[in-house]
Amino acid sequence: MALTDMALTIAQIDDTDPARIAALALANLGGTHEQVAAALAVSGYTDRPGAGAGDVIARYLTACDPLLLSVTVTDFQARLDRADETSVVDLPGPVLGFASRFDMGRYRHRVNRAALPTPLADPGASGNDAGTAACPSTAYPRSESTV
């Protein structure tokens, strides 16, 4: 393997890349729109008055990458803004299916948010076998040092 090929391979698996973090997080939601809905709902990512599916997905992605300043979800992509860069990631099919059904009212108010664990305080508490809205543990490397 040539050195340039190795550098490209390392760059492709960089877990600090916001698009990679978002892609891993979105894939972690499940393989069907029902699994995505269940994983988000169980983790407390549900409807807010006047909000659409983009808001639910944006809140989830923001929780998965603490360096994101904002997330804008369009019909097919999520724009991820950090202080030093902007990335775009395509929404996978199951998330697109969830979003279209959510915006038609199918998943609104599916669960009582007050009865759910706080996803950031208790990640992975869902116990959901159909996908989980807890961010993949490798999505964002945590540092033990403080600045």
What does this structure look like?
The chain is of the alpha+beta class. The chain has a domain at 15-115. Helices cover 36% and strands 12% of the residues. It is built from five helices and three strands, in the order ααααβββα. A three-stranded antiparallel β-sheet has the order 1-2-3, with helices on one face. The longest helix has 12 residues, at 53-64. The protein starts with a helix and ends in a 44-residue tail after the last helix. Mean pLDDT is 74; it is low at 1-11, 111-131 and 137-147. Residues 117-147 are annotated as: Disordered.
Overall pLDDT: 74
Radius of gyration: 16 Å
Low-confidence stretches: 1-11, 111-131, 137-147
Count every helix, treating DSSP H or I runs of 4 or more residues as helices: 5
Percent of residues in helices: 25-40%
Read across the widest sheet, the strand sequence of neighbours is 1-2-3
Largest sheet: 3 strands, antiparallel
Q: What gross morphology would you assign?
A: globular
Strand content: 5-15%
H/E topology pattern: HHHHEEEH
Number of strands: 3
Structural class by secondary-structure content: alpha+beta
Distance between the termini: 37 Å
Oligomer: single chain
Tell me briefly what this model is.
It contains five helices and three strands. By secondary structure, it is α+β, with helices and mostly antiparallel strands. The chain has a domain at 15-115.
